[in-house]
Amino acid sequence: MMTSLRSARILDSDSQRPLTLKHGRWKETRNSKDHGHSKYVESISNISQCIQSNAAVWEMFDSISPSESATNFQCPLDLPELVQSLKGLERSLDELDELRVQMRIRILGLETYCAPLLLTRQTMRTWEDLELMPDEILADIFQAGHDMDQHGHYRFALSVSQVSRRFRDVALNTPRLWTRLWLEDHPLQVFAFLARSSTVSALEINAISSHDHVTVLSSFLNLLVPHSNRWLSLRFKDNKQTRLALHSHTNIQLPNLRHIEVLYDDDFNEVAPLWMNWAMPPLETYETASFAATYFCPELKVTECKLVLAYEALDVARLAGCLTGMKQLQTLTLDCLLSDMDVVTVLTIPTNPLLLSLQSLTLRLSCMGSNRGALFKYLESIYAHMQFRGLCQLKMTLDPMYGRLADLNTAGLSPYPSKIENVALEIDSKCTYGTEPFGDISHLLPGITDIGELCIDTLQSSLFESVNLVASPTARTISFKGCGWLSEDKLSQMIRIYVAEGNVRSLNIIACKSVSQEFIRGNPMRAKMKMDWSLH
User: Which residues pair with 331 in a beta bridge?
Assistant: First the structure.
């Protein structure tokens, strides 16, 4: 068996290159390989003898109780015998490591050899299984693939419809695959997709294009407005061209619309939104991106809202006023672009803070190096204008963060509830802070005294040079994800602090390249704290 595998170009353990056994060198190659095999057999034999000869030593030390003091233990062996036993075990470990490497090389060789055969057989078997699969199940698979497309396009539908005649017949009779309609599509394609989508109420419409031609936009919307009762989501730009294209459609009925996304340019100056008179009773999600001083969220009965704001749209008082009318809001995302912006122009002194009852808040603040003080000033203003009550999940992204947390003036502010289940921090920093005091994470989270899980998700190194930064006694679980700065030495210091404080019960290490699984598994503190290590 081994000879046949080698003749089939399995990787050689020494050269790690494919072997080609030719007639003239058969005997030489055979002898060299037999010598290699005898070497491994000898290693295994040595390891087995070492285990047998040291069995008594192992049993003797295994019998020691964990609570028994080492000074009270009487060893029947003298020191030379123990040293010899230790050296023998060390040699065995070296031989085991070498064997493991060689076995891994052979496993890779076998996988390389078997993969094409396995793939061919699996492909044939998969195709046969697909032929036996009922059309209803195949249609469900197609629809699942369509829903999983993160780009929200119809590329998956077009791909599966071109595999075979049967795939095409099933795809064409699965209406959900043809519900995504884009302004940039050809009118004939839009017409064909409308026909294929039948009467399903799941049309996803993207009416935004890089070229806002009124004629093209009018043609596109005139095709779709008669099917407005089937719209599921709508994305458009509220500007002069769109208003001209919809001038004859003022009271659009949208009985199945769940999601709407509106974009406003920096020159937008209308008094009321285009969709003010549209009937959208089941609307659940409202999303907007605005660079203008005017944008709208009037009395929307949505449960989820995402706002991307820049320039004049960053006015905190106006933001608070817009959120006031959203009484059923449960999930809020604020994405604030502070680059090249003098935040003083959009900051106001609050009178009474707005009370928002939310379950989830995502707060993203980004700026450039030329505007370093903007991020902290704007965050302080948000905390002064709003209070988030009933919050269960908080995710905060600072990209990047210039300055020290100690400079963040949140004293006396309580924007968050005292207890929160999950807090995730994604912080990037471009500064080197040296040895000066930097501050504590609690500056970012004023009012919070009890955290279920604190997740630190960052790839940079300079921000967390101080161990005290992440020594949060308020969190019961702390997770580090993708933290390239986190070394085993630094983590050991943190673990000692967490164990001493006693509040942190669980530690998760996720995809941190400088912390090995062996370090976590062999950590002596695992008896006092739960520790997990994973790649995802």
Answer: 304, 360
To the nearest 10°, the Cα dihedral for 471, 474, 479, 480?
-30
How far is 288 from 262, CA to CA, in rounded Å?
A: 5
Q: Is residue 42 part of a domain?
A: yes
User: Does 281 fall in a domain?
Assistant: no
pTM over 0.85: no
Copy the structure tokens of residue 388: 């988030």
Domain boundary among 85, 109, 132: 132
pLDDT tens column, 368-417: 765 667 888 888 889 988 999 899 999 998 877 777 777 788 888 889 99
Tokens at 84, concatenated: 């010899």
Structural domain boundaries enclosing 459: 449-536
Cα distances from 92 to residues 36, 89, 209, in angstroms, run: 18, 5, 68
The whole-angstrom separation of Cα 451 and Cα 505 is 12
For 101-208, list the strands marked E by DSSP: 180-182, 203-206
Q: pLDDT for 186-215, tens place per residue?
A: 899 999 999 999 999 999 999 988 776 888
State how many domains the chain has: 2
Examine the fold and report which residue of 89, 117, 132 is the final residue of a domain before the chain moves on.
Answer: 132
d(Cα 107, Cα 13) in Å, to the nearest integer?
A: 10
Domain assignment present for 318: no
Is 254 part of any domain?
no
Task: Report the DSSP pairing between strands 419-427 and 304-310.
Answer: unpaired
In angstroms, the Cα distances linking 253 to 275, 481, 522 are 11, 46, 64
Q: What is the pLDDT of residues 118-128, one digit of tens each?
A: 555 555 566 66
